[in-house]
Specification:
Keywords: Membrane, Transmembrane, Transmembrane helix. This protein is mainly alpha-helical. The protein is built from 6 helices and no strands.
């Protein structure tokens, strides 16, 4: 299933992807700042090695997302599908890990409310992923259409190999063939 427009038809997939990219970029910048502050020891009580390891892992993941969202914004601006592809893969992995986390936390804490809240958050994240995924395929289709048009144009303007050279009668005559 692919979308034709984003956000219930109120904007294009490109605009929806840019809006999502900016929101995710701001979120990731906030996370990078928060994790960096934890690692720098600005927050009191963050002295345990497990907490520092968690902050380091969170910082690395936030930096990967930051790169993905920058590539999403640049790809949307320049129309480059290969740049948007990284964001699509990045957010798909995040979506799958989010589903696993919601299920695991719901089972561990035995809270139905946590499961439904996670289900709603996962559905929203899934729709956001579907917007950028559909935009990615839209870029692929545009690139394929442009390539096909270029191929048709170039084959119409270039002479064929047979029509470009006159036949050499001596080479193709039956008397010159060796038996």
């Amino acid at each position: 299933m692919m979308l034709k427009t984003a956000f219930c038809g109120c904007c294009s997939l490109r605009t929806g992807s840019i809006v999502l990219g900016v929101l995710w970029l701001l979120t990731d910048l906030g996370q990078v700042i928060a994790y960096s502050a934890d690692l720098a020891g600005i927050n009191e009580g963050a002295e345990s090695s497990e907490h520092r390891l968690g902050s380091l892992i969170g910082l690395c993941i936030s930096l990967l997302h930051l790169v993905g969202n920058i590539l999403l914004l640049l790809g949307a601006d320049k129309g480059k599908a290969q740049w948007v592809k990284y964001a699509v893969m990045n957010h798909f992995v995040t979506l799958v890990l989010g589903v696993i986390s919601v299920i695991a936390l719901s089972i561990f804490y035995s809270l139905v409310a946590l499961f439904f809240a996670g289900l709603i958050a996962t559905a929203i994240a899934g729709y956001c992923w579907l917007v950028i995924y559909s935009f990615y395929w839209q870029l692929i289709e545009v690139a394929m259409t442009e390539t096909h048009a270029q191929l048709e144009t170039s084959s119409l303007t270039k002479p064929t190999e047979c029509g470009s050279r006159p036949l050499d009668e001596d080479k193709h005559s039956p008397s010159n063939l060796a038996y």
